[in-house]
Amino acid sequence: MPSPLNSSAPRRLLTGRRIATLLGLMVLLLPAAAYSLWWWQAARTVRGGLETWVAEQRANGAVVEHGGLTVGGFPFTLRAELERPHLATRGADWQGARLTAEAPPWNPTRIALTFPGEHRLTVVQAGQPPLDLLAPRGGNGEVTMRMSGTLERLALRFTDLTAQIAGQRVPVASLDVGAAQPDSPPAERGVAGLTLTLTADGLTLPDGVLPNLGREVRRTELTLRVMGTPPRPEPASLSAWSRDGGTVEVDRLALDWGPLGAVLSGTLALDAQLQPQAALTAEIRGAPAVLDAFKPLMRPNEAAIARTILAMLARPTGPNGEPVVTAPVTVQDRALFVGPLRVAALPKIVW
């Protein structure tokens, strides 16, 4: 008959192995369970943040609609998808097939954006034909948020677009849009509350638009800073911002179109009727070709005066001694002036 001590030893050993196995499983499973709970809490926070943003925009008078919001991507991604997003504010309407935002859970402030399918932006100004911008292949981008929930930086890119205004179609090879803002609203007038950049490459104009310059606009660039707290695009907000000394600093407005190369910089503001006024400085290459392009629209004496003024302002500072015209460009009383020459009347902007 076996001894009781000998029969209990295997049972004690087996029990010890079970305890060790359970402890090992707990060491493995507890971090996974904790991570899963943390991920689901982060996903809930993402959904709540998006729903709060939608409610805030609607409270401010915007139209915000979508065909459904889903949050997923477990375990290594936080992904939010909006089906058929639609955002309409004063003067602008954007609709798309889908919007997807993705971020790693360990760095949720850096978000990759994709815009699958077709997207359309319509800009409407009272008394003017609407501008439609269609991106049939969508686009992509990236947004960086601060931990406080404010936007730090935004970059978007679209290719193979079509702009349409007054029935005229303008293909655009690529469009890049960027924005950046400080951590908190500026407390002083001389501090930028928002910086915007825009670059459009490869615009193909319709036939007959200033044929002397050609149909292809190789590049258009714009960099500007909205000084002070950026206003809403509505009369009361714009008027308060303007009265408080709000301006827009144009750091660079460049156009590369056939023989024309122009770079402008200066300041924009609003007058008492909320119409734009500007004081800019322009450096213009290819001014004689531009004058020839506009000559059919000018009276004979105006064309002669313009040619004389351009000759006086030109300096051989371009490549290979090419003449470059440096001149003030102003906007006042809804008219555009280059030096003392009134070039064009401007339409009234209705906010």
Strand content: 35-45%
Instruction: Give the topology string: H per helix, E per strand.
Output: HEEEEEEEEEEEEEEHEEEHHEEEE
What's the story with the biggest beta sheet? 21 strands, antiparallel
- What is the count of β-strands? 21
Radius of gyration: 30 Å
Poorly predicted runs are: none
Helix content: 10-25%
Question: What does this protein look like?
Answer:
- With 351 residues, the chain is α+β, with helices and mostly antiparallel strands.
- 25% of the residues lie in helices and 44% in strands.
- The protein contains 4 helices and 21 strands.
- It has a 21-stranded antiparallel sheet that branches.
- Strand 20 and strand 21 form a beta hairpin.
- The protein is elongated, with a radius of gyration of 30 Å.
- It starts with a helix and ends in a 6-residue tail after the last strand.
Summarize the helices and strands and which ones pair or pack.
Blueprint: H1 4-59, E1 63-65, E2 69-72, E3 78-83, E4 86-89, E5 92-96, E6 98-103, E7 110-115, E8 119-123, E9 131-135, E10 139-145, E11 151-165, E12 168-180, E13 192-204, E14 216-227, H2 235-243, E15 248-257, E16 260-270, E17 276-285, H3 287-294, H4 300-313, E18 314-315, E19 324-332, E20 335-338, E21 341-345
Antiparallel strand pairs: 1-4, 2-3, 3-6, 4-5, 5-8, 6-7, 7-10, 8-9, 9-11, 10-11, 11-12, 12-13, 13-14, 14-15, 15-16, 16-17, 17-19, 18-19, 19-20, 20-21
Short description:
By secondary structure, the protein is α+β, with helices and mostly antiparallel strands. It is built from four helices and 21 strands.
Considering the chains and any ligands shown, give keywords for the structure.
351 residues, 21-stranded antiparallel sheet, elongated
